[in-house]
Specification:
CATH superfamily of the largest domain in chain A: ATP-grasp fold, B domain
Helix content of chain A: 25-40%
CATH topology of the largest domain in chain A: D-amino Acid Aminotransferase, Chain A, domain 1
Number of domains of chain A: 3
Largest sheet of chain A: 9 strands, antiparallel
CATH class of the largest domain in chain A: Alpha Beta
Distance between the termini of chain A: 42 Å
Number of strands of chain A: 21
Oligomer: homodimer
Structural class of chain A: alpha+beta
């Protein structure tokens, strides 16, 4: 059996390991917290710091392959492991581009991939020259995650909230729709796309609120979305699973917002709604199996379960009994002991052929299932 | 989080634990082999003998609930644990009836549940008086499993193959169809049935060959099957998951063959083909959640992957690449390191609305994916 490691032990690792149990593979996880969601579902858990060279190198040495469930891992260790023959998903060169928002934007520009206008800023001071560029989003180059590291700057008075570190200032576009596409790339470069999904965001936390799969797109926009998403992963030149997030503006321009080089929140519905889930697909890629079928079995909605405001401590799922009675809902609780405001504690997938039913049940879940502390 | 233990660490435990990762629950497994399929998917693995009082009692003490994935567990320990407040799924009283084939048959008779004619035999010697009862199946009272403990006796010359231990001799019926029904019973006695499935057996090993869900039954037989299966679990008076296997004879009589008080091979398709899988359902029961939706999303076939004759040793899955290319197939490999003839090494589920497509792909899997040793 191949030995495969996952850097990071959150819910993505947890769902990867649920899927891994369908294949002959020996699994390893490294994470700082031995009570993390993935710790009890692998063959071997190692407590360690995924940002430290020594920890990542020691963990990866001797494995056949290594993947990530979060971008903030030590790249230098991955590069050394790759040079020594460990297969890394995604390749460190692709991860390097994506993980730094400045390099990522410059990559899109260099590859002529449509993306919103931007300038690189190196300090808060530098923002002061850029009043003409407003309104804009200021995104920190390194370390942003789940809505952290992004500030909306509407007027020059907002500059004080800008980052005093290398960052990009992106001109705001008038967004008609936000779309995500999960894409699988095999070792030989074969590419398969999942049907694009419509994303609806929580404007406060900048976290996915709910999403509908497949996206409601006219044929010409669907083709544009698929062509652009395909070009992103082709140009990244790495096997693995990628999530490409795109904007459609008021003039029907399709712009790449950002890319994640890993399984992604916008693909969780694929567990029940598609023949081959994004998690199953990553194992197929890593284990050298053929790519799976990305077609959907049923249209789906996803609702994220976020820790409610004002509650920090041992998690309690108010309304869980009611949501478990929804006949077409699939509940995933990530098993995190502690909740805090905005923390991803689980998700619920709803299947239905009727879009109105998807939205109706998504709202029932969103307002009926509240993660509080005991 | 509730602490829940599973006695036995085979593939049923493995699939239970895959499903458990959707809920907040702390999982425990006991099995003799620390490399068993379920060992790496629980929070706490205990090496121990599930047939020994001391081991089972020590394992169960302090847990909130306990379930089984095989019948041959120490009942006395379960009874003591139940008396001390541990919830047991199924209740020891129900397990006691089912696990002994003699008590099980007598239970059907006492409850007026239709079953084939039988006599109890206490020794091989006793068979000699029963020539008039042939052809018949001789089934050992305790310890039979997966085709072991069953002998077909057609003439008195076959008596030498009979069991020299307490057993039942069942008159053979002319079987038109074999049906299985998975049933969920909640703590409060609420019952939900999954759609019955058609079972096709490998006559050599008496192992399930493939099955089709839902079964192709006329309305009047479907109602009879459902009514009888429902009566079996009602009379067993225990929460849990049950699999009731039934014969339909050439006169359209519906007879109970046997019952398993646990998740069952005949319900594996429910992972992909039904809204709530049998594994998910057992967690709902144990955790006191509402019962899930048993409706099917898609008709399905299951093929079991059994170790091929003549191969014993580290498992190798010949033809796996080809089967993974079937666009509507879901592969489950149980991760057992060693194969041997007839050992259950995995299963493949196929989804399709077309019965011919189900049978076609089931046969492709059956003849195309062979478990050999390296």
């Amino acid at each position: 059996m191949k030995k495969v490691g996952i850097l990071g032990g959150g819910q993505l690792g947890r769902m990867l390991l649920q899927a891994a149990a369908n294949y002959p593979v020996e699994t390893f996880v490294m994470e700082n917290d031995s009570e993390c969601p993935a710790a009890n579902l692998c063959h071997h858990f190692a407590k360690g710091d995924i940002t430290k060279f020594e920890d990542v190198y020691a963990f990866g040495k001797g494995l056949d392959a290594l993947t990530i469930e979060i971008e903030s891992v030590n790249e230098a260790a991955l590069e050394k492991l790759e040079a020594e023959g460990v297969l890394i998903y995604p390749k460190p060169a692709a991860l390097k581009i994506i993980k730094n928002k400045i390099l990522q934007k410059q990559f899109y520009k260099a590859q002529e991939i449509p993306t919103s206008e931007f300038v690189v800023t190196t300090s808060r001071e530098a923002l002061l020259q850029l009043t003409d560029f407003l309104p804009a989003a200021h995104k920190i180059g390194l370390g942003g995650y789940d809505g952290k590291g992004v500030e909306l700057l509407r007027t020059s008075e907002d500059f004080s909230r800008g980052f005093d570190a290398p960052a990009i200032l992106e001109k705001l576009v008038t967004i008609k729709k936000e779309i995500a596409v999960i894409i699988a790339v095999s070792n030989s470069g074969e590419i398969r796309l999942y049907p694009p999904v419509d994303m609806v965001f929580d404007s406060r936390l900048n976290l996915l609120d709910y999403q509908i799969s497949p996206a409601d797109l006219p044929q010409n926009l669907l083709w544009k979305v698929e062509a652009i998403a395909r070009k992103v992963v082709k140009d990244l030149q790495s096997p693995g699973i990628f999530a490409v997030e795109l904007f459609i503006d008021d003039k029907d321009n399709v712009l790449v917002n950002e890319t994640a080089p890993r399984v992604h929140n916008s693909g969780h519905h694929t567990i029940e709604a598609n023949y081959c889930s994004q998690f199953d697909m990553l194992w197929r890629i890593i284990l050298g199996y053929p790519l799976g079928n990305t077609n959907h079995i049923f249209p789906a909605a996803i609702v994220n379960l976020l820790g409610a405001d004002g509650f920090t401590g041992p998690a309690y799922y108010e309304g869980l009994q009611e949501v478990l009675q929804i006949e077409n809902a699939f509940v995933h609780i990530y098993g995190k002991k502690e909740t805090k405001p905005g923390r991803k504690m689980g998700h619920v997938t709803i299947l239905s052929r009727e879009k109105q039913e998807l939205i109706h049940q998504a709202n029932r879940v969103k307002f009926g299932l509240i993660v509080k502390s005991q």
